[in-house]
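Subject: Secreted protein

B.,
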Amino acid sequence: MRRLIENRFGLLALVLIAMGALFGVAFVSRPAPVTQVRPQAVRAPVESVTAVCPAPAGSRVSVVTPPGAGGPGSATLSAIAAPDAKGADKKTGEDPGEKDAVIDRPGLLWQREIASGGGPLMVVGTGSMAAGLESAQTARETSGAQRGLAGVRCVEPGADTWFVGPGPAAAEMTLYLANPDSAPADITFMVYSGEGPVLSERGNGAVVKPGGHRVIRLRDLAPSPLIMALRVSTRSGRVAAAVKAVLGEGRGADWLPVAAAPATRVVVPGIPGTAGKRELYVAAPGETDTVVRIKAVLEDGSYALKNKETIEVPAGSTASIDLSTGIGGQPAALVLESDVPIVAGLKITGTGARQDVAFTAGADSIDLGSVVADAQATGGKQVSRLVLSAPFAPATVEVRLLPAKGEAPAPVEVKLAAAHTQEIRLTPRGSKDAFSVVVRPLPGSGQVYGGRVLDEATKDGQLVTAQPLAVGRIWALVPPAVDAPGVVLP
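Prediction pasted inline below.
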């Protein structure tokens, strides 16, 4: 019995020794650990773009895609349908022709005059026509309450959009909403006036059906504000929103550009170097009062404006300040800094017996480049300018013109000193026709902000419209894809 027990313990010892030897060999011969590389987001060309021209009737519509992308693609312009009283769909916009227009050549400006009457126009780009596609509408009126140049970049649908400018008590303010998607858009509005948030007694929301559009007078929502910030957001779905301001007989009309979302530092670019009044609007939509610090970036450098270094903005309200004596007659950008998020815009008033107005607003830096669909060189009558600013560091950009007819001129390199602004008159050699503009920061460039200004001298006074440069819809950052059981497991 004793020998049997000893044999069992001996066998167990042999098994343990053998297992230890096996683990030892496995430890020595194991492969080196694999270094874990975190996947990076990939920059991919945009393959689909949708934008809405809010009210193109009586305007010229411009559409362009910069050259560079290969392969098939097209941009289609079609009128947005809206339900009629009986519930059936009908065309309410004026088509660019008897049928939808199709563009399939990158690098060539497409431009048409749209007949009067009708509703919004949808521009959809796919494939090689999507990357960088831009569209705009510009109207020219020489008489009546709508006298002036009124231009707007056709807007893509989104879930949150801001506008800053005069209020319904100072101008006829009209909100244009369009839903090009296949799902309803449930929309809410909030107006921040000089006295604080304004809630309409008639409700502060609307629903726009798929493929539908609506036009709303802001006076019906909030009749009292002299100045305002307007937030258009959706509980579900997306909406393309645009706002037009008509100040009345002899005082001009134009569209408000979309303003950059609230941030503690906002740059308002594209202020032209022409004479006239300059009025800044700043809104603090949060629950904290703020003192906003103002710095002007001019041709000769950047500095605070004397006696206008700051503006106080109460919580949930909008304030304004006249900067005419500080930046009037000088191409400029404004850098606004605050301890709480703010939104901002600026009104540009032209000169003459009958005035016209233009608007610019807080904008992002054009790190990926920018495309302006509509610029003009009509025999010296209408003049197009770029106003470019490098508020924080030296910058270098390439400016390329894409004419509607003929060969495109060679691109021009523009160097911007840190904390300086340059105004560039755009004159395509040998061309008196329309053209588009592509602005691209070169490698190593600091942040660039800018705007395109279009003006025309008439016997009654200057006509003017402005458009801050928007980041080009050229590239999209595609998030990394990794193996994750959570995709299929609850």
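Residues 46-82+98-477 form one domain.

T.
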